[in-house]
Structure formats: C-alpha cells, structure tokens
Design brief:
By secondary structure, the protein is of the alpha/beta class. It is built from ten helices and six strands. α2 crosses α3, α3 runs parallel beside α5 and α5 runs parallel beside α6.
Length: 258
C-alpha cells in the first residue's frame, strides 16, 4: 500500500508543483526568506537512527532549498543552523553537529553558486568552525547570486546586544558622550549595526517541525514578517512544502501596523 501511494505521489506531485509555480504572482514573491531548520533530532529518532544521521539528512536538504528559492525569485535566504543556546549541548553532541555544519558550508561554497554570509557570534564558536565559515564567505564574496546568510552561533537577543555595543563604541570613537548618543539614538541606528546590516528584513519566516515560536530567530528584523509553520520535520521538507509556504505568503494581505 505504501509503495502504491508513493508511486501516485511521484506522478501527481510534479504536476501539482508546476501548477503552483505557474500561478505564483511575480510581484508577491518574498524578497528575503528566513528558514528555521527544525526537527532533525526528532526525524532521526523516528527513523531509528542516531542524532548525527538526522543532522546529516537535514544538511542534505539545504542545497535543494536554495534551488527552490532561486526558482521562484527569492533574493536573500537566512538559514538558522545553530543557536547560541545550542552551544550549551553536551560536547560530544555539539562536536558532531559542528562537523556537519562545517561540511555543509564547505559544500555550499564549493558549488560556487551562492554568496555565503556567516551571521552570529562567531567568537563563541571553536576557532576551526569560525575559520571555515569565514573562508566560505571569502570564497563566494564575488558571486552574483542568491545571498545566503548562514546563522551559526546565532541568537536574536545576542545580536541586538552586539548591535547596541557596536553602535556605542562607534559613537565613543567619534568623541560623543553617552548622553549625546542617548539623545539621538534611533531604531535605524541599531539596524545599521545588526549582523544583516544593509539587507532587507525578511518578508517570510518559515519554521519546520510544527513548532510555532520564534525561539530568538531574527527578533529585530522579523517585526513585520509573515510566518509560516510547517508540520514536516526539516529532513522531510519538500519542494511542495516550500511552494505552499510561498503561495500562502502571496495570498496574504500584509499589514505593517499592530
């Protein structure tokens, strides 16, 4: 029975996906999409595999996602691969996860198709991980393609704190007093010191695995974002799931007030 259903899906899904793509209005495609790649450990447990296998399966789904984004015209993608909270995991688990992330980023850089931009508190990461993230950014710096923010060691509260700290140090370096800075500081000033400075805020944030919370992802930038929560665990997230998220975004009437 399962094989029969799989065969039907293989026939029907491509036609359904093509129909969804044809009917997406070009003027309502999100410019920037943030994705919370959640559910790798639960997926591994469900298939009777170890956690590392879940991480690797999740990593294998990143390149297809970026291809889907290119297909519909998304220009910026932010992928949350590791939070600051995740850095508190047992060392043996963290080491395995960092290894998967390093290899995934190396693979993305080797494709020489996307411009990679690490975002997060890289100083909190092991030196080898930080160096490989920076090397990937250097290797893809001149690529005129999809901009991919790789959020590793990332936490929204930490980002805001870092932005305010950088702003204060900048102003102090220009000889301004704390009182002078306090009188003139604006939301735009803080935005200019975020990890994603110079980029548009995300129009759409997708979270897989059925969880319906931000968990600290792009707290500042997502103030006006639309959210899409998908039941699929990240390794099972398919092109059809992505297209449904884009379609749901295109069908919404965006409101930028409360």
């Amino acid at each position: 029975m399962a094989s029969w259903k799989d065969a039907v899906r293989r026939v029907l899904y491509p036609a359904y996906e093509a129909r969804v793509v044809r009917h997406l209005p070009n003027e309502r495609i999100p410019h920037h999409v943030g994705v919370m790649l959640d559910g790798n450990r639960r997926w591994a447990k469900a298939v009777g595999a170890d956690t590392a296998h879940g991480y690797r399966a999740g990593a294998d789904n990143i390149e297809p996602l970026l291809g889907w984004c290119e297909e519909v015209g998304v220009k910026v993608v932010t992928l949350w691969l590791l939070s600051t909270d995740n850095l508190n995991r047992p060392s043996e688990q963290l080491t395995g996860l960092l290894s998967v992330i390093e290899n995934a980023v190396d693979s993305l850089a080797a494709a020489h198709r996307w411009r990679l931009n690490p975002v997060g508190a890289l100083d909190l990461l092991p030196a080898t991980t930080s160096e490989r993230l920076k090397a990937a950014a250097d290797a893809t710096r001149d690529i005129d393609g999809l901009l991919v923010n790789i959020a590793v060691g990332y936490g929204g509260r930490r980002e805001i704190a870092d932005a305010v700290r950088a702003l204060l140090l900048e102003q102090a370096g220009e000889g301004r007093s704390l009182e002078q800075v306090a009188e003139t500081i604006s939301a735009e000033d803080i935005s200019e010191h975020l990890y994603t400075k110079g980029q548009p805020d995300p129009d759409l944030v997708i979270r897989t695995s059925g969880e319906q919370r931000l968990g600290g992802f792009l707290l500042w930038q997502s103030a006006h974002s639309e959210f899409y929560f998908c039941e699929a665990l990240w390794p099972d997230f398919r092109r059809v799931d992505f297209l449904r998220a884009i379609r749901a975004y295109a069908e919404r009437e965006r409101r930028f007030g409360a």
